[in-house]
Design a protein that fits this description.
The chain is built from 15 helices and 21 strands. The protein has three domains: 125 residues, no CATH class; 138 residues, Dipeptide-binding Protein, domain 1; 219 residues, Dipeptide-binding Protein, domain 3, CATH 3.10.105. By secondary structure, the protein is of the alpha+beta class. Helix 8 runs antiparallel to helix 10 and helix 14 runs antiparallel to helix 15. The strands form six sheets. Strands 13, 14, 15, 16, 17, 18 and 19 form a seven-stranded mixed beta sheet that branches. It has a four-stranded mixed beta sheet with strand order 1-12-9-8, with helices on one face. Strands 4-5-7-6 form a four-stranded antiparallel beta sheet, with helices on one face.
């Protein structure tokens, strides 16, 4: 009975660290960051939310991954080819990738990854027995018969039912992490807490709701300039729900990184331009970059009465012209984020072009004109709008509603818990609601799927319908020429700006605050926390 306690005590000593130390008492370099939301599973098949994805990214690899510019790069697959018809993807695997040492293997050591592992991992995602939230990634895309084929131990082939240009982006998602069948079968339902992957770090101890400890994978296959990755010896993840408390821990030096800003400390940390205040220079670093998250107010075009003003395009356009996005970002977000002045495609995607897609700016006179043309001069005859949001967006929703009222649009706020809000959006019960869409993969198609009329809610929460839009969307799915595909995307964005099924709010940015001695933390628009390149000086 003493051994488990002694083992845990040794781990805690190995990973503990004084407030001003870069290494543990044992001389190991430990990176400590806070994740305000608890991890629910370390099984990649359940990599649905950021809290799970960040940890899973440390533990696993996919066939391919994305660099900080969202370019597809090799990982377990060293190369790949796509057939001319866009239906066959052939991957050649590296021969030096091994799963973490684990008791599930015959020799209790490790095993080299092969094409059968890829096939098993993909088949597992779509298995009805598992009920993975990631099963949708292959739905309607792969052929019915033998979609995942093993040619030889190092050659895997994916067969599609029809061309789908964003397929490589899909394969970079964490659902597509490669897992060993032996571990899944040995640990069964406990695989969620006993992960076995190929990543730069491996599982050590998970004290649920308290801390997760990872240690360096000494046999990791990647290197930079001849030096094996990762540089860190260990990672400690805490789960402090209160962001202000986590910020104070960062200031004390007990944490190396926190993510996300909150009103309780953002003014102390950042100036009005959204940059680190001078008093923190040399102590902290603030990193912000484009984040593929589009924030909006959705208008359910079928949940409103026939006579509702929300059914009138000019009224929806008036809503978009009648509030100041620039001032909103300054006052509500300390300029962490960019005003959504150019369609639903956020900055950070290659098809984003603010010159070709002109959206909405603050123009109250234009809003008043549109309001009158819609039949409501100065708001006369308008019913009170009920805007539904959650607690996290009360300040922002209040700012918008007050500016609407300045031109005669009366609005009340209905506040729901986040889960209830999402559920009511799914049921189509809310006329106008706060929403956001974080890209699952780096292609604008991921945003336009929200408005494709053949899709239910989700993702088409607005129940938007347009034959022209659908034709453009379907053409983009099979267009292999990027320039032509981006042109189709921009035409779709222009149509959405004109029809205004949403009130365009802002394009998000990542917000990471670290100690000054942290180097090698890469930026990326998917807001992933990549630690294999990080050094703690």
């Amino acid at each position: 009975m003493k051994r488990p306690f002694l083992f845990l005590f040794a781990i805690l000593m190995f990973l503990s660290c004084g407030s001003d130390q870069s290494t543990s008492p044992s001389g190991k370099t430990v990176f400590k960051y806070n994740q305000p939301t608890n991890i629910t599973s370390l099984d990649p098949a359940f990599a649905k939310s950021q809290n799970n994805i960040w940890a899973i990214d440390h533990l696993y690899n996919r066939l391919i991954e994305l660099d900080e510019d969202l370019n597809v790069t090799p990982s377990i697959a060293k190369s790949w080819t796509i057939s001319d018809d866009g239906l066959t993807y052939t991957f050649k695997l590296r021969e030096d990738v091994y799963f973490h040492k684990n008791e599930c293997f015959v020799d209790k050591e490790q095993r080299r990854v092969n094409a059968e592992d890829v096939k098993y991992s993909f088949e597992r995602i779509i298995s009805k027995d598992l009920n993975s939230p990631g099963s949708w990634i292959f739905a309607g895309k792969i052929r019915n018969h033998n979609p995942f084929e093993v040619v030889d131990p190092q050659t895997f082939v994916l067969h599609l039912a029809k061309p789908f240009r964003p397929m490589l982006g899909i394969l970079s998602m964490h659902y597509c992490s490669i897992v060993p069948q032996e571990a899944v079968e040995k640990y069964a339902s406990n695989f969620r807490s006993k992960p076995v992957g190929t990543g730069p770090f491996k599982m050590k101890v998970w004290l649920e709701n308290q801390n997760l400890f990872l240690s360096k994978n000494e046999d990791y296959f990647e290197s930079v300039n001849g030096q094996q990755l990762p540089y860190l010896d260990a990672v400690k993840i805490s789960f402090i729900a209160d962001r202000k408390t986590a910020y104070l821990e960062l200031k004390k030096g007990a944490l190396d990184l926190i993510s996300g800003m909150e009103s309780s400390f953002v003014d102390e940390l950042l100036n009005d331009a959204g940059e680190l205040k001078e008093e923190h220079n040399g102590k902290l670093q603030f990193i912000k970059s484009p984040f593929l998250n589009f924030e909006y107010l959705g208008i359910n075009l079928n949940a409103t009465e026939i006579k509702s003003p929300l059914r009138k395009k000019k009224f929806r356009q008036a809503l978009n012209f009648s509030f100041d996005r620039v001032e909103m970002m300054k006052r509500m977000r300390n300029n962490v984020g960019l005003p959504a002045n150019s369609g639903v495609t956020p900055k950070g995607l290659p098809s984003f072009d603010a010159q070709k897609v002109s959206g909405y700016n603050y123009d109250p006179n234009k809003a008043r004109t549109l309001l009158a043309e819609a039949g409501y001069p100065n708001g006369k005859g308008l019913p009170t709008l009920a805007l539904t949001t959650d607690h996290n967006y009360i300040d922002l929703a209040t700012f918008i509603s007050r500016q609407w009222e300045d031109i005669g649009i009366k609005c009340k706020l209905d506040i729901l818990e986040s889960a209830t809000l999402r559920n009511n959006m799914r049921k189509g019960q809310l006329p106008i609601f706060r929403g956001s869409w974080i890209a699952d993969y780096p292609d604008a198609e991921n945003y336009f799927t929200m408005f494709y009329s053949k899709n239910p809610a989700p993702p088409n929460y607005t129940q938007f319908t347009s034959d022209t839009f659908d034709t453009l969307y379907e053409a983009a799915l099979i267009e292999n020429n990027d320039e032509k595909r981006f042109q189709l995307y921009q035409e779709m964005d222009k149509l959405l700006v004109d029809e205004a099924p949403v009130v365009f709010l802002f394009y998000d940015q990542t917000a990471l605050c670290t100690q000054a001695n942290i180097q090698g933390l890469t930026k990326n628009a998917l807001n992933l926390l990549v630690l294999k390149y990080v050094k703690k000086l």
